[in-house]
Design a protein that fits this description.
It is built from 7 helices and no strands. It is mainly α. The chain has 2 domains: 3-70; 80-142. Helix 1 (3-26) runs antiparallel to helix 3. The radius of gyration is 22 Å and the shape is extended. The relative contact order is 0.08.
Length: 143
Amino acid sequence: MEESVLIAIKSGLFVIEKCLREILQETKNDSKAKNWLLKVQHPDISDAEANTLTVKAEEMLKEIQELQRNFNVGKNEESIRWKVICDLHEIWTMLSDIMPDRLHGYGHVRPEDSELLTMHIERMNAIRKEMENALSPRSRTLR
């Protein structure tokens, strides 16, 4: 099989595996993990449905594993450090987007709300910077 075809297969299987892993995570009965500060999930899947989804997702993962073995599809390496850095960049982008001076296009922001929002965003951005610094090459040499 041509290399480009294998790459297409591998990419497709990766997306399918990612979705299956998310389904497996969603069908767990850990309600604390599903309820965030700004989101609450309601359990509209019965235990029987969750069990069936789990079994079928695991069956499909086995099929992917067979394809991986049959076509000698290797694994991609993913750096956790790089993924966290990307997440921190996305957080920085969102924090920048919700600064009061950027919200004026949505409507009027009262000065006292603007001040409070700015204070919290600056605190979160400081925490984000500390998280970034924890990943910097310099911080690894200090440990």
